[in-house]
Write a structure and sequence with these properties.
This protein has four helices and nine strands; from the N terminus they run E-H-E-E-E-E-E-H-E-H-E-H-E. It is an alpha+beta fold. The protein has a single domain, classed as Aminopeptidase, CATH 3.40.630.30. Strand 2 (about 30) and strand 3 form a beta hairpin. The longest helix is centred in the middle third of the chain and has 15 residues, at about 80-95. Bound molecules: coenzyme A. Coenzyme A binds next to strand 6, helix 2 and helix 3. Coenzyme A binds near residues 72, 78 and 111.
């Protein structure tokens, strides 16, 4: 049996979700495109690896699109991130959405590579947008991964190519 199981997020996961979100984003809120959003109650999925909570993906449904509001894997290179992306693809197909999108920041080079290898493309680069975001959320650090200055928002998008295909 595969050690990896994906389950829908429930209210029983709230403390795990809070721990992951605050480790990733300092608070449970994200700022993107000039708006703050608290992720804690978003719908999503929890990855269990050998029975342990090991990953999280949350999303928001918009009119035509699905926004990934968080994706965090605690155990690298065991397929957790990929399996969570596969789940949100099913959501987008079943909800008849045109695409899945998310905002990350310029320092997250490995995250951007991860998404690109899974069919996402860079849709927009919002240069210096994080300067504005810090006015809304001062907790955003000045530097991020690989000690790079966090300056730009990068919008990644995955087009859903088969809108009439329904996942059972
Ligand atoms: C980006 C992130 C979600 C990837 O999660 P992950 O669980 O390591 O993802 P996967 O295991 O599915 O894939 C990672 C690599 O491991 C490989 N891999 C997957 N299963 C594997 C296995 N059983 N054995 C060996 N390698 C494996 C994948 O092929 C992939 O390599 P590739 O990208 O070169 O194809 C994770 O690094 C993370 O949480 N980063 C911090 C937060 C972040 O950046 N989030 C996204 C932006 S908001």
């Amino acid at each position: 049996m595969s050690p990896l199981v994906i389950k829908s997020k429930t209210t029983q996961d709230t403390e795990f979700v809070r721990t992951l979100l605050t480790a990733q984003f300092v608070t449970t809120s994200i700022v993107r495109k000039g708006e703050i959003h608290d992720v804690i109650n978003d719908n999503g999925y929890i990855a269990y690896y050998n029975g342990q909570q090991s990953g999280l993906l949350t999303y928001l449904l918009h009119k035509d699109t699905v926004e990934v509001t968080s994706l965090i894997s605690l155990i690298p290179a065991q397929g957790i991130g990929t399996a969570l992306i596969e789940e949100v693809k099913k959501v987008a197909i079943n909800e008849d959405k045109k695409n899945i999108w998310l905002i990350t920041t310029n320092d997250n080079i490995s995250g951007i590579e991860f998404y690109k290898k899974r069919g996402f493309y860079v849709k927009n680069v919002y240069k210096n947008a994080v300067e504005q975001s810090r006015k809304i959320k001062p907790e955003i650090p000045l530097t991020g991964l690989e000690n790079l200055p966090i300056t730009d928002e990068i919008e990644l998008e995955l087009a859903i190519e088969h809108p009439y295909y329904k996942v059972q």
